[in-house]
């Protein structure tokens, strides 16, 4: 058993996880590193992971009116345009009411402190975008809250798909403000605010807003509907069914959330690596599908691969498993359904990575093979339930972590294969000399020094290799396969025998040529042959040929090989060590002989590997 194995494996994990941290992925459980390389499905949130999560109001829909909003980010500067002309919004009562109500039903804050160059929000980006649009019309959140203090709130939840707040104005009147899913609000609204006053919401009105909702969602916008209602001033308790009925619909607000830079490339990388990406979002299907097409998760012919939460919940276990085999976008999904999706995929043999950020996501994160929590927007409970935390909330960081997980596992496997090759080569060489009647030519101290040279440093050179260029063009590793496959075991045996036989032949010729120290020749040939085996195993991992040796001349390889050669030279030419190890100084022609013999075993092994591949 190679004693360098624990050191090499530990260092590989430490070095790999350090590289992951630089790429924005923090591993909370080292065992997750192995699982990363097996990942077959990534279920990723849309907002903030595949997109920037920097919402910007771009469209406002009023009865028979479609307004455009200009501006960038959270800077409250821009214009409201209708048919290309600037709207005098100070005179537009219904436009002001729409954004006034959206700003009241809001828990975010838009701020710019002294000395800061840009505006920023505290709270949900969707709500921050509404505050920004309202401020463009001169509506200041702090002022309207003072004028209309909040006396009660019904927070947003995924079942109701809306949020309501209750306020009292300066006249003592109590009213509610509601914002949420257009489908939900349209279903609750009975009235609509128009230029002619408040009137009953007609079928034509519903059709107008429904078509506009589909239009905006089809452009990938997040769409919210806003409504309000007057409440009875004597009402002391507030239930959803009481305050969210008889709503007056004020309009729709459309917000853009751009895809993250590099997200489309990361999705393409997953596809090349045989990893399926499923977008999971609370948005409506049209919005999710539009973003998915931008990211190339969906193509124009894949609308059948979009499922809603209500569709999935109505399916039997068998139907759900069948649907998830083709699913690429899951819309209107709640945390409970996330957990069911993960379990179903796992039952189908998939290795699942699932992202999440909320408290309710914790069960799904804990159930997933790789639970991925968001470091910026995620809750403490979500991070505790996860195996990996993405510090920048970026989907591309997940993909980089998967690639790094593949590299770490492959490096550890190749290093262990090398270490076993070194051990068996030494055993076969010693056994061969005894079998030939020469006695043991390698003293115990010489073998210990050989272990120091050939186990630690070359092993480190293998595990510190960077990622091969084609690491993400290979399918995921089967999680049930052995660390050392049958093919690798056969290679270990062949390589060990070739090195040992070469050492025995070299010692035979050294004796015939009457070299000064046969044991020193054997020791040197074995050491250098094994050093070249470290190079050969690294070549095998990277799929490199002899003509591509230059690609392996990287810093870790050169430093560790130099350290091994230095220790070998020290053992032969440093007199105190000569006395301890029983070595002798080699003449120049003996050094040439050692170098030639070592290269013979290297090329012999490479030729055998080529012949095996050709035969296959």
Brief summary of the model shown:
The chain has 616 residues and is of the alpha/beta class.
What does this entry look like structurally?
The protein has 616 residues and is of the alpha/beta class. Helix content is 50%, strand content 17%. The longest helix is centred in the last third of the chain and has 41 residues. The two termini are 31 Å apart. The model has no long low-confidence stretch (mean pLDDT 87).
Q: What is the first-to-last residue Cα distance?
A: 31 Å
- Helical coverage, percent range: 40-55%
Mean pLDDT level: 87
The 3D shape can be described as elongated
Largest sheet: number of strands, sense, barrel closure: 11 strands, mixed
Low-confidence stretches: none
| Count of β-strands | 21
Radius of gyration, Cα only, in angstroms? Answer: 34 Å
Number of helices: 22
Beta strand %: 15-25%
Structural class: alpha/beta
Oligomer: single chain
Secondary-structure topology with pairs:
Layout (H helix, E strand, L loop, with lengths): L4 H18 L2 E3 L3 H6 L4 E5 L10 E7 L2 E5 L10 E3 L2 E2 L6 H12 L4 E3 L8 E3 L2 H12 L4 H7 L2 E8 L4 E7 L5 E7 L1 H7 E6 L2 E4 L2 H16 L3 E9 L9 H4 L3 E10 L6 H10 L3 E5 L4 H10 L11 E3 H5 L3 H10 L2 E3 L3 H13 L4 E5 L5 H6 L2 E5 L5 H6 L2 E3 L4 H41 L8 H20 L22 H27 L5 H25 L12 H19 L1 H7 L6 H28 L1
Parallel strand pairs: 2-16, 2-19, 12-15, 16-18, 17-18, 19-20, 20-21
Antiparallel strand pairs: 1-21, 3-4, 3-15, 4-5, 5-6, 7-8, 9-10, 10-11, 11-14, 12-13, 14-15
Helix pairs in contact: 1-16, 1-17, 3-4, 7-10, 9-16, 12-13, 16-17, 16-18, 16-19, 17-19, 17-20, 18-19, 18-22, 19-20, 19-22, 20-21
